[in-house]
Amino acid sequence: MSDTLKIGSLEITSRLIVGTGKYANYDLMQSSLDASGAQVITVAVRRERLVDDKGRSLLDFIDLDRYTILPNTAGCFDAGDAIRVARLGREILSQMNNPGKEWVKLEVLGDKQTLLPDPAGTLEACRELVKDGFKVLCYTSDDPIAAVRLKAAGATSVMPAGSPIGSGRGIANPAAIRIILERLKDADTTYPVIVDAGVGTASDVTIAMELGSDGVLLNTGIAHARDPVTMASAMNHACVAGRAAYLAGRIPKRLYATASSPWEGVISYIPGE
Amino acid sequence: MKIVVNGEEIDIAGCPTLADLVEHFGLGDRAVAVEVNRELIPRERHAETRIRKGDRIELVTLVGGG
User: Fold this and answer.
1) Which residues of A are catalytic?
2) What is the pLDDT of residues A232-265, one digit of tens each?
3) Tally of domains within chain A
4) Does residue A263 lie within any of the structural domains?
5) Residue A31 belongs to domain spanning
6) Percent helix, strand and coil across chain A, each rounded to 5?
7) Residue A93 near residue A71 (C-beta atoms within 8 A)
8) Which of A32, A125, A236, B32 is most buried when burial is the number of CB atoms within 10 A of its CB?
9) What is the pLDDT of residues A170-187, one digit of tens each?
10) How do residues B8-22 score in pLDDT, each as one tens digit?
11) What pLDDT does B40 receive?
12) pLDDT at position A1, please?
């Protein structure tokens, strides 16, 4: 049985989306991306370094036939800047003819310390970018009402944060993620909801997937692990495991035990009987 | 002619068009997006877009990010 994730017109088999930031070097990034199994990777849009830039560029290390590039608007604190950056990203990806050219990972942040999304700015930018033809994958908090509003504004995918970006605190409020999943998939079970940010280790990915998320997006959890390549592989397996567990259907939690071995035929003394 | 490129004021000669400027910085064969005074100029218009004194130009690319 194939279990693919459809995000707009793109269909992918790996439900893990990984970032390309914060690696010690490009070789390590390349090996980690490979080990993660990801087919979609995120990038940022920044000024060219015009002096002393004899070094290598990110794009020299990315196989454009293998990966769909999802440009982000990280570092933007109002809708206007996010829209500008999204358009610049589209211009670059159009030159490379990468399928990500229609996409943007929209982030409109509130402040530098929390990196939490500004809900008003995010909604405004989402509306504008949808109008401009973008497929908006929209980073938001785990607020179910904000998520509903962003879907209504035309976001191709809503991406609630598990916990703050780079915090490694995992899925801080699983109940909120469950409510988001229920509300966004209510009349539309295939609507993609991707947990974005906060993942610290493999079990965080599994928890997000077991809740019924369609995918997980992470960066720091791999890039800053002691051994990024091994962690990337762990995240990959965790994502597959969590998805399978979700599809398989977990048993309910019970207060008391239920024996796995039959009571019938026991030869021993049973307390209380 | 003084212009501002990526936030730095520079005095540049021999670059009448955006295409020349992009080439000047060695970005001719690289994926690069260009804004002039906050307006995005698509690559196909670089050759016809003349640079004027005081223009504020952004040359941006993709870098690692999450």
Assistant:
1) 105
2) 999 999 999 999 999 999 999 999 999 999 999 9
3) 1
4) no
5) 5-248
6) 40, 15, 45
7) yes
8) A125
9) 999 999 999 999 999 998
10) 999 998 899 999 999
11) 97
12) 54
Residue A113 domain-assigned (yes or no): yes
Subunit contact B7:A47, Cβ cutoff 8 A? yes
Q: Determine, for residues B66 and A91 on separate chains, whether the beta-carbon distance falls below 8 Å.
A: no
Model ipTM value: 0.94
Question: Which token pair is A66?
Answer: 């293998």
> E strand or H helix at A174, and its extent?
helix A174-185
| Of A57 and A179, more confident | A179
Q: Is the pLDDT of residue A188 over 70?
A: yes
Tokens 């990984």 identify what position?
A18
Chain A, residues 107-166, CB within 8 A of chain B, namely 165-166
Cα B16 to Cα A29, A91, A259, B2, B60, distances in angstroms? 39, 22, 82, 12, 20
The alpha-helical segments, DSSP class H, found in A12-118 are 26-36, 79-96
Whether residue A147 lies inside any domain: the answer is yes
Cα A47 to Cα A64: distance, rounded to the nearest angstrom: 21
Q: Contacts of residue B58 in chain A, CB cutoff 8 Å? A: 47, 88
CATH of the domain at A85: 3.20.20.70
CB of B12 within 8 Å of a chain A CB? The answer is no
Regarding pTM above 0.90, the answer is: yes
Set of chain A residues whose Cβ sits within 8 Å of the Cβ of B22 = none
Please indicate, yes or no, if residue A260 is contained in any of the structural domains. Answer: no
Tokens in use for A109? 């942040």
B35 touching chain A per CB within 8 A: yes
Do residues A133 and A154 make contact, with C-beta atoms less than 8 angstroms apart?
no
